[in-house]
């Protein structure tokens, strides 16, 4: 049984693909779909298709939802927490400076699984008013504090004393179990607030657009490490108990509640200064500091990369990256204190394979990108989450490619995110990247491979369409204009439009607001020295064309290269209609023409037989780049099952694929693929072939990114 787009998968499945990490999947799998994708890519044992129908069938009905009232908003949270790592409870004191914009005798805040003991309001320069009632709306995760008289317009301090449980649900403020080096079981207290779980640690305005500063203090056992978003200002004995200390952290910049974090536990660390003066630490389980060195190297390279790329400095004095024993997601970008699943941060220098190092580099690159894109400029509402995650899922590759060019990481992107997104988005029950989100329970639903992998793929296409220089200009003005504020998807399109002079909003909404993608059908004709291409678009559906339905159109950036220079785009056009004719000047009859060099466009291509045949020499002599051969091969396999005349298709594909990969392997693939009708099996076969291709390409030159698992189960099936 596979559930949601690869994010929630059956334990039997994940256990099989995850030999490195026995604890990983013995827990509920919440948010680690990218971790799973990674695992899937590093295995070819997956012979099941994922559809969204079983997902939508079981989806709860949309609940009514209203955002918090705006008559009272926070300016600063003074928050003190005292966790008890034996009873698994915590005590909290909140002193929030708030602004009342409209006189009211009640304050509505988010609050879940917390008991409020006392609450009062102190208007600036006036008498304290005790709250007379706390009305919990549990379904809505809110509490209404009632006051006997109206709180007048102006500033005041809201004081709340509360208690909560250090839960075992890996959300909110929770306990994480670990064994210390001598094997004793211990617990750390950890937070995971995204998307809407800060309200489980303290009463707050838990919406991304309600930003405030935070002054955090933690009262903890004196032998424990205590971390939060900012640097420590003071660590002093706690007067009421000499086994405890009070750790006070510096004031944060204005920020959203979902990015607040604290960790209390036993950790070692390695430290370095990045060239731009930021103190970087990687915290590891005690005795494993050496395993943090690789992530430290990545972080120290990554921070200056983003600073240069965005032309905006990292705004905090420090950043900590910490490996947490029990962690639901792969990693979380809390500002200044990034939390990771252990396998996404730690590298054993003696035993880890290069694919693990690549994964750590990507995850660190992803979370550090959020420090700007997400943390400094935050989405206005969860509807724009796809942009947050899609952008970080694209730029993590740009960053890793810059820091570790030897990884050839873009080939991994094509073979992982891009092809996966195409496969999923071709299903009838896919969904648009951008979906309206209301109730918190819906937020979790949209963290799926469409947000991440299609999101990253369309940003990659956009970057290619705009060009790096204008893209950077647009990013810089977006980050500058909205820093310490919130923005919507359209705000980014506006900035990129200004920087490039291109119709970005129009182009992008065709990709984000409608599900699916087109197949580009291409025919060619030689006219003297010119090559005339007839190109048309129609929706690509894995289940075949849907007769009688309106055919959607996309605004498709199409680029074209020729055998004269296979690595270089000769012509770019924007296909904004169902079909068009393009003239490419000065292409001699013996040259081949290829669409989509670099495999950056989010579409499939169906060439005429003659065009496909003409590409064969480029495939054979390897002048077509690996990502281009990968894209070609992937398109052909996805088209295979749709062809009525299987024999003709078999011959055609055999010739091209035979040249791309080892011929005897392809023979087996085709014999097997053509003997079955299941799309799932065919698409799994093409995954295997793509990886085999990459493996052949890279085998001699360097350590293999995919060496652990490619191919073997497949041979077992076909032989
Ligand atoms: N912000 C997310 C983590 C997250 C998502 C937390 C949804 C809570 C709800 C983080 O930036 C992320 O995307 N993490 C990925 C790993 C990453 C390398 C793609 C994850 O956890 O799978
Ligand atoms: Zn992310």
From TrEMBL:
- Report the superkingdom from the record: Eukaryota
Required cofactor(s): Zn(2+)
The residue ranges of the Aminopeptidase N-like N-terminal domain are 74-259
Q: What is this enzyme's class at the first EC digit?
A: hydrolase
Molecular function (GO) terms for this protein are:
alanyl aminopeptidase activity; metalloaminopeptidase activity; peptide binding; zinc ion binding
Which UniProt keywords are present, listed alphabetically? Aminopeptidase, Cytoplasm, Hydrolase, Metal-binding, Metalloprotease, Protease, Zinc
InterPro entries in the cross-refs: Aminopeptidase_N-like_N, Aminopeptidase_N-like_N_sf, M1_APN-typ, Peptidase_M1, Peptidase_M1_aminopeptidases, Peptidase_M1_dom, Peptidase_M4/M1_CTD_sf
Q: Which GO terms describe its biological process?
A: peptide catabolic process; proteolysis
Q: What is its main location?
A: cytoplasm
> Does the keyword Transferase feature in the UniProt annotation?
no
Limits of the Peptidase M1 membrane alanine aminopeptidase domain: 294-511
Please name the catalytic residues of this protein: 367 (proton acceptor)
EC numbers on record:
3.4.11.14
Which reaction does this enzyme catalyse, per its entry? Answer: Release of an N-terminal amino acid, preferentially alanine, from a wide range of peptides, amides and arylamides
GO CC, alphabetical: cytoplasm; extracellular space; membrane
Where in the cell?
A: Cytoplasm
Keyword Zinc belongs to the record: yes
Name-wise, this protein is: Puromycin-sensitive aminopeptidase
Gene responsible for this protein: NPEPPS
């Amino acid at each position: 049984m596979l559930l949601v787009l690869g994010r929630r998968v059956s334990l039997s499945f994940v256990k099989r693909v995850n030999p490195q990490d026995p604890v990983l999947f013995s827990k509920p799998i919440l948010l680690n779909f990218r971790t799973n994708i990674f695992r899937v890519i590093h295995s070819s044992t997956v012979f099941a298709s994922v559809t969204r129908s079983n997902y939508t069938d079981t989806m709860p009905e949309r609940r009514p939802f209203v955002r918090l009232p705006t008559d009272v908003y926070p300016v600063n949270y003074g928050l003190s927490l005292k966790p008890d790592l034996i009873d698994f409870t915590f005590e909290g004191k909140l002193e929030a400076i708030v602004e009342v914009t409209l006189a009211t005798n009640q304050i509505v805040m988010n609050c879940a699984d917390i008991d409020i003991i006392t609450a009062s309001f102190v208007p600036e320069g006036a008498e304290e008013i005790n709250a007379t009632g706390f009305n919990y709306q549990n379904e809505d995760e809110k509490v209404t504090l009632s006051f006997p008289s109206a709180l007048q317009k102006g500033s005041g301090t809201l004081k709340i004393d509360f208690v909560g449980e250090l839960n075992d649900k890996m959300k909110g403020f929770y306990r994480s179990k670990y064994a210390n080096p001598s094997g004793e079981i211990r617990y750390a207290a950890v937070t995971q607030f995204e998307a809407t779980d800060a309200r489980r640690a303290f009463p707050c305005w838990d919406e991304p657009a309600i930003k405030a500063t935070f002054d955090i203090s933690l009262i903890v056992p004196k032998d424990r490490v205590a971390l939060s978003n900012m640097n420590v200002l003071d660590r002093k004995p706690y007067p009421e108990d000499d086994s405890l200390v009070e750790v006070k952290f510096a004031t944060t910049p204005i920020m959203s509640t979902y990015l607040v974090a604290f960790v209390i536990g036993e950790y070692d660390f390695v430290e370095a200064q990045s060239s731009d003066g930021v103190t970087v630490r990687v915290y590891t389980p005690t005795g494993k500091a050496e395993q943090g060195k690789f992530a430290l190297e990545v972080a120290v390279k990554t921070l200056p990369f983003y600073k240069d790329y965005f032309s905006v400095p990292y705004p905090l004095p420090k950043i900590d990256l910490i490996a947490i024993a029990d962690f639901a997601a792969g990693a979380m970008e809390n500002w200044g204190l990034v939390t990771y699943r252990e396998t996404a941060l730690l590298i054993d220098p003696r035993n880890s394979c290069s694919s693990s190092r690549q994964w750590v580099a990507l995850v660190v690159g992803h979370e550090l990108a959020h420090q700007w894109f997400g943390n400094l400029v935050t989405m206005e509402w969860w509807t724009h989450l796809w942009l947050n995650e899609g952008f970080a899922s694209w730029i993590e590759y740009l960053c890793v490619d810059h820091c570790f060019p030897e990884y050839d990481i873009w080939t991994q992107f094509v073979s992982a995110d891009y092809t996966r997104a195409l496969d999923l988005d071709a299903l009838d029950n896919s969904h648009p990247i951008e979906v309206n989100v209301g109730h918190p329970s819906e937020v979790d639903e949209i963290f799926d491979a469409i947000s991440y992998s299609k999101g990253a793929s369309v940003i990659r296409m956009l970057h290619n369409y705009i060009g790096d220089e204008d893209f950077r200009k647009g990013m810089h003005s977006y980050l500058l204009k909205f820093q310490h504020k919130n923005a919507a998807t359209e705000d980014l399109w506006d900035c990129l439009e200004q920087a490039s002079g291109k119709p970005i909003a129009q182009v992008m909404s065709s990709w984000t607001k409608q599900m699916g993608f087109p197949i580009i059908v291409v025919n060619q004709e030689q006219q003297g020295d010119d090559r005339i291409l007839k190109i048309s678009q129609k929706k690509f559906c894995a289940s075949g064309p849907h007769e009688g339905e309106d055919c959607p159109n996309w605004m498709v950036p199409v680029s074209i290269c020729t055998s004269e220079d296979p690595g270089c785009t000769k012509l770019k056009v924007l296909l904004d209609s169902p079909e068009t004719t393009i003239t490419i000047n000065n292409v001699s009859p013996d040259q081949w023409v290829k669409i989509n060099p670099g495999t950056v466009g989010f579409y499939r291509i169906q060439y005429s037989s003659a065009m496909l045949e003409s590409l064969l020499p480029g495939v054979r002599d390897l002048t077509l780049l690996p990502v281009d051969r990968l894209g070609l091969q992937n398109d052909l396999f996805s088209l295979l099952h749709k062809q009525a005349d299987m024999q003709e298709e078999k011959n055609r594909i055999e010739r091209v694929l035979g040249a791309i990969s080892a011929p005897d392997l392809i023979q087996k693939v085709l014999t097997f693929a053509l003997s079955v009708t299941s799309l799932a099996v065919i698409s799994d076969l093409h995954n295997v072939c793509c990886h085999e291709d990459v493996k052949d390409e890279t085998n001699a030159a360097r350590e293999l990114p995919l060496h652990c698992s490619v191919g073997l189960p497949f041979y077992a099936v076909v032989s």
